[in-house]
Prior knowledge:
Elements: E1 3-4, H1 17-27, E2 32-36, E3 42-43, E4 57-61, E5 65-74, E6 84-91, E7 96-99, E8 114-121, E9 127-133
Parallel strand pairs: 1-8
Antiparallel strand pairs: 2-3, 2-4, 5-6, 5-8, 6-7, 8-9
Amino acid sequence: MTKSIERDSRPDDTAAGPEQYFQQMLDQGKFMIQRCERTGRAVFYPRAVSPFGGGPLRWEPASGGGTVYSATIVRRREDRGGDYSVVLVDLDEGPRLMSTVVDAEPTDVRIGMRVQAEVRRTPEGISRVVFIAAD
Length: 135
């Protein structure tokens, strides 16, 4: 089940191929990544062929677990939604992705912090991967 996000998002109606499938899975509340069939290495962002030699990729559910690699704060006026964090997260499977930590004050987000992915919907109805602090 997806939950709502209070941040601005811009829909991308140009998604096709692997990006389209990824978005369809997010719309069903599923965070999926790809894995190279030759090397077994996990891949993110969605692609048509593996970056590790061009071999085939298969889809699998992501564990969602990860560690904050880098964090910053985007400062905005309260009437524009207030401050929020932007993070790079190293997924437990290996890939790194950019997102936000939604359940913590931006000043409380730290490098090395354990996080868990969730799929949430923006006010515009777009499903996105965000993170919450893991205990």
